[in-house]
Write a structure and sequence with these properties.
Elements (H helix, E strand, L loop, with lengths): L1 E7 L2 E6 L8 E2 H8 L11 E2 L1 E3 L9 E4 L12 H6 L4 E4 L12 E3 L3 H12 L20
Parallel strand pairs: 5-6, 6-7, 7-8
Antiparallel strand pairs: 1-2, 3-4
Length: 140
């Protein structure tokens, strides 16, 4: 995730938001958490982070290859692997061809990624105090 903090001339000041304290988990653990079969190979591969953007993949990440309006994230898997991705989360369409890394295959991976991220990073939002401001005027 990228948070834009402001403008410095024409350059946007950018801060990347990525938990750095997650413990690694095996591909088999990820698959079991999602209630899907453990991949036939690579279940013991250790995953150290999650990413759905190939530009933000770090070594050890599971890359989430999601279907988009014009293309499928699986089309970018090679770039993610070159950046260090060690596994992929995708749907049955994304896993229809042989893949270079272990795959966790689920229906509707976009929705399941939120659940997986919360579990993988040990529910960081539990430590937040959340407020809601409602109404139609005067909140800006």
């Amino acid at each position: 995730m990228v948070l834009r903090l402001g403008r410095l001339g024409d350059m946007a000041e950018v801060m990347r938001i990525r938990p750095t304290h997650a413990r690694s988990r095996s591909v088999a653990e990820l698959a079991e958490h999602l209630g899907t079969p453990v991949p036939g190979r690579g279940g013991d591969v250790e995953v150290t982070g999650l990413s759905l953007n190939t530009s933000h993949v770090a070594p050890g990440d599971l890359y989430a290859a999601l279907a988009g309006a014009r293309s499928h994230g699986i089309d970018h898997l090679d770039k993610a692997v070159r950046a260090g991705a060690v596994a992929v989360l995708t749907d049955p369409v994304g896993a229809s061809d042989p893949l270079p890394v272990p795959a966790v295959v689920v229906d509707h991976p976009r929705g399941r990624l939120a659940e997986l991220s919360a579990w993988f990073y040990e529910h960081p939002s539990d430590a937040f105090t959340t407020f809601g401001v409602t109404g139609t005027q005067g909140k800006t």
